[in-house]
Each structure stands twice: as structure tokens, then as C-alpha cells.
Amino acid sequence: MSLPTLVEVCISMAFLYLVLSLMCTTVNEMIATYMKLRSKDLSGAIISLVDHPDVLTRFYKHGLIKNAIKAANRSDATTPMIDVTMPNGAGENKIANIPPATSHSSYLDGQSFAMALLGSLQPGTPIPVIEGMQGTVQALPDGSVKDIVGTALATADNDINKLRDNIAESFDSVMDRLSGEYKRKTRFISVLVGIGIAVVVNADSLAVSQAIWRDSDLRDQTVAAAEEFVKAQYGKAVELCNVESKDTTTETSPPDSPPDATIDFAATTNCVADKLAMLDDQLKPFPIGWGNVGSLTAWEWAAKPFGLFWTGLALSLGAPFWFDILQKFINFRGAGTKPETTKEKKEKEVDAKVSDGQAVG
């Protein structure tokens, strides 16, 4: 087995997985945007945190929250609200007036959440104050909102700013956990999308790797395309297609997530189409597609589901993973085999002389 050939096959397969992973990521973005997965998750999290109907209703009427939701819907019109029945912690069910989950903002920063919550606990006070807050919290029935604000009060040292910061930190911790749950959910979607893409383009890992191994010209083409893509086009390929329709300063995003609060869906769709077309061009050197499957043997047909499923699993690892792998193989190929040191050469010469002496003896 030739090491340079093996490295080139690895580069080619990593490049294939990288391009298809970028396609998978683009489709996932589109699914998440149009299904409003982040909006639904955030809406559910806030309902769980602010679990008192009256407080929740006032929370969504607060100016900070109303403006965030208005920006998310790209409209100056009032967002329609819905009535939700929920327990009030005192053995009764009451109505909370909240926006639909699909109309919710995708992101909310901790400071805005804290200020809106404090304002909801003191509806008659234009600006939240620390005086009377302890009594207000104690009057609440047992639940999440009482626990959050009560815990924050215990370390606030009678300072409204510390109280706000404590609540904001608690909210941010919840958002970190929510982000993890969202990633697990999208990982499952990624596997399904990855298998779907593999089937659509017939990216059979077993067949493609065998073809690249056997054909030196094909290896040269795919390796050259991989090196060019890494140098010149990867940065453009990873740009997000969430095109903002107007500026907004009402929301901030977690550092690892794209701000899609004010998405222009028409522009986003065009961006997705352009990106998929660009990525499709990168696949031209590869022996994929359903055009030449008539000559497959029975064994090759039997192995194809495994090859397609393997590709789908590989794509679920994500483009950053395959980009890192691809770069390492390209660097290894460019560096070549590490030359022997003088010490290693002398040791080999000594070993050779010893072996010769033993052979003579």
C-alpha cells in the first residue's frame, strides 16, 4: 500500500464530506429558519421560567419584550396574542396572554429578560426598585419565578443592579442548557438530512473511495480541487444565509449562533440556492450521481445502502470537523515524510553492521 496514495484518498474523501456537510448545514439552516425552531424553544423556556400567569402576561407586555418580538416579525403591527391556560401555583388555572411560539423572537439577552421580569413584578413602578421586592417575591406562589428572583435577591446586597445581573446570569445559564438541547435536536435532523443528501447525489462512500484509489487522474483532480477550495472558497461557503431585512438592536445572540431575528426570507432563499449551486460545482470531479449505475453488480448494489448510510453519518459530524481533517491531511501531504535525523541514520548504520556481522558469523 502506497502512503502517498492513501493520503490522497483521505484528502479526496474528506473534501467530499466537507462539501456535502456544507450542503447539509445550509439545508439545516433553512429548516431551522422556516420551522422557527429557535423561536419555539425560547418561547417554551420562558413559559417554564416565568410560570405565574399574571407575571407572564405582564412580561410579554413589557416594552423590551414587545419590541424584540416586533423586530422578529419584521412588522410595525401589533403581534397577535393567544390565551394559554396554566396553573398559578395556588391550585387554580388562569389565563396568560402571550405571543404564539412561531411569532416569538429567536434570541433574548439576559439583561433584557431581567429588566422585563423585574418590571413585571412591580407593574405600578416605572423603573424597578429594590424596596418592596422581597415582599413581592414572598407573596408569589411556589414556582420557578419565585426561586429565580428569590435566589438573586439573597446575594444582591440590597442593590437593584446586582439583582438584575443575578437574574440575567440565571437566564443565561438556562439559555446555555437550551442551546445544548437545540444542538442535540439539530444533530438528529442533520443525520436525516445527511442521509437524504447522500441518497440524492448517490454519494456512496465505499464506491467513491474505491474509484479514487484505482484512478490516479481522478485522485489528482479531487486533491487539486480540495486544495483550491480550502485556499479560496471555504470562507465564502461557510457564510450564513440568514439575511437580515433591517437593523435591530433589541436582541443579542449567543456567540455560537447566528442572529436570525429579522430574516428576509426571499433573500435567504436566494442565498441558499446560490450556495447549493456553488457547492454542487465542487462535486463535479467525484464519481457520484445516478447516471452510471446500470453496470453495477449484485454485490455493489447490496453494499450501496451501507455506503450511503456511512456518508450520512459522516456528514452529521459537521463541516468544521471535516475542514480540520482536510487541512491536516493537506499539510501532511505538503510536508512529505519527515527526514531522518543524523542520530537516527547512525543508529541504522550501527544496526546494519551488527546484522551483517551476525550473518557472517
Explain what the structure shows.
The chain is mainly alpha-helical and 361 residues long. Helices cover 67% and strands 3% of the residues. The protein contains 14 helices and 2 strands; from the N terminus they run H-H-H-H-E-E-H-H-H-H-H-H-H-H-H-H. It has helices at residues 3-35, 37-49, 53-61, 63-72, 110-121, 133-139, 144-154, 160-201, 205-214, 216-237, 265-282, 298-315, 319-335, 342-360, and strands spanning 82-87, 93-98. It has a two-stranded antiparallel ribbon. Strand 1 (82-87) and strand 2 (93-98) form a beta hairpin. The chain is elongated, with a radius of gyration of 29 Å. 33% of the residues are buried. The model is unreliable at 243-262 (pLDDT under 50).
**Cα-to-Cα separation, first versus last residue:** 35 Å
Helices and strands, in N-to-C order? Answer: HHHHEEHHHHHHHHHH
Describe the biggest sheet?
2 strands, antiparallel
Oligomer classification: single chain
Derived structural class: mainly alpha
Average pLDDT score:
81
The side-by-side strand order for the widest beta sheet comes to 1-2
How would you sum up the global shape?
elongated
The share of residues in helices is 55-70%
- Identify low-pLDDT runs: 243-262
Number of strands: 2
Tally of contiguous helical segments: 14
**Gyration radius, to the nearest Å?**
29 Å
Strand percentage lies at under 5%
Give the arrangement of secondary structure elements:
Blueprint (H helix, E strand, L loop, with lengths): L2 H33 L1 H13 L3 H9 L1 H10 L9 E6 L5 E6 L11 H12 L11 H7 L4 H11 L5 H42 L3 H10 L1 H22 L27 H18 L15 H18 L3 H17 L6 H19 L1
Antiparallel strand pairs: 1-2
